[in-house]
Amino acid sequence: MSNPIRVRYSDTDQMGYMHHSNYLRFFEVARLEWLSSLGISYKKMEQSGIWLPVAHASVQFKVPSYFDDELRVKVTLETPPKASLLFSYHVFNQDETLVSTGKTKLAFLNAATGRPMRCPDDLYQVLQPYF
Amino acid sequence: MSNPIRVRYSDTDQMGYMHHSNYLRFFEVARLEWLSSLGISYKKMEQSGIWLPVAHASVQFKVPSYFDDELRVKVTLETPPKASLLFSYHVFNQDETLVSTGKTKLAFLNAATGRPMRCPDDLYQVLQPYF
Amino acid sequence: MSNPIRVRYSDTDQMGYMHHSNYLRFFEVARLEWLSSLGISYKKMEQSGIWLPVAHASVQFKVPSYFDDELRVKVTLETPPKASLLFSYHVFNQDETLVSTGKTKLAFLNAATGRPMRCPDDLYQVLQPYF
Amino acid sequence: MSNPIRVRYSDTDQMGYMHHSNYLRFFEVARLEWLSSLGISYKKMEQSGIWLPVAHASVQFKVPSYFDDELRVKVTLETPPKASLLFSYHVFNQDETLVSTGKTKLAFLNAATGRPMRCPDDLYQVLQPYF
Fold first, then answer.
1. Assigned CATH for D5-115
2. Which one, of C54, C31, C60, lies nearest residue C104 by Cα?
3. C5-123 adopts what CATH topology?
4. Nearest-CA residue of chain B relative to D21?
5. CATH of domain B5-130
6. For the residues B64-69, what does the mean pLDDT come to?
7. pTM of the entire structure?
8. Chain D contact probe: residue of C23, C25, C51, C56 with most D CBs at under 10 A
9. Is there a contact between D14 and A10 if contact means CB atoms under 8 Å apart?
10. Is this complex's ipTM strictly greater than 0.85?
């Protein structure tokens, strides 16, 4: 489960809901934190020339989130990584209510060539206990 | 096809791509413009107590978008509206390249009661030629 | 000093900097946290019909912030509150470097009437030790 | 005067206002469009190694902007460019009401060295009629 992510005032819209596009940002925060907890710095990975752009994303919005809510995201690696990483997300608020779920597929990209690549071996090893 | 939506500098991320979360915002701009072209003001609809929060969204990212790109979004109503509106989106850049596709499901909500409702009759009539 | 606010990937722009507009959002996070630490819930204040829209803001950008930086914001109440609250901000990164400073003036607004109002007495009492 | 910039649903906050941080984004859109109207592509300038990060910004919020408002921004170059560009902004809505004003100072930066530089000669020539 991720650290709590507080819904900011600037995240709200005029319905008084957190604007739905922010869930994609929260998924990103949570998966980078999850990788970081395994000792994987996305910042360093990117500096070493490996990019992980999002290739596909889906979100199911169950109940709204509101200003000042404290959301926590459960991140799950769905399948063994090959050319991409498939994550699923479960977002809970401070009342333990499931507010949304989602999935993202991230493609390994060689930043120098702009071409797809396979999951680097060392990353594969670190992720192995989770798939 | 929507009016062109120019990718702003503030939409980019450090990969030099438009951050993927912005596609959900562009879908929203395009569907409200599409409704507006049929004489439906989402602003007035909301003021009359009918909300349309997003219940589900998915995005397929095909090629990146960049700062200053001019994106146009083809909006399609997928099914006859009942308790929700299902839209699909095809986003093209200035080179006519398909950069992303997506779908969103929007649920009709009675703002006063917070309860789901069916598509209002007058809206159904206006949308009828499109499904 | 605020809790650390981590620069998100979605906060960056194609220079690799945190986009400058985000500082206004971070100021907001920090001042609401500061008020919260004094027992003042902005959420409840707003629900009670008192709004605090920003009337003026200025930001001095000293050095860039980067993805994954941990910023902390020192919030200072500048003057006794009358019809508005004047805050100043000093933003430091994880190396204790001052990355930006700023000021915002927030005007008390009666949400029901849309008219300016004076700082409520109970809020004035709570803020008194800080001006 | 810039092309109209429509306030998006995602730009609003729970007061029903456009969130104030968006004005900095709109200033950016307007000044890049203004430069573009003089034949200056910021995209190409950046690719040639000249960056223009914001060094200082201020915004005066006069009346709120709302979802679906059409804002136009008058951009004025304030002083002859030396190591920086100083712009002022006047933002009007569809009723010709002045909704906000602002200033930004942008510093010329040699991207390769990370050091300040003077306004390039060719840019200076193009800007000369405007200061």
1. 3.10.129.10
2. C54
3. Thiol Ester Dehydrase; Chain A (3.10.129)
4. B10
5. 3.10.129.10
6. 98
7. 0.97
8. C56
9. no
10. yes
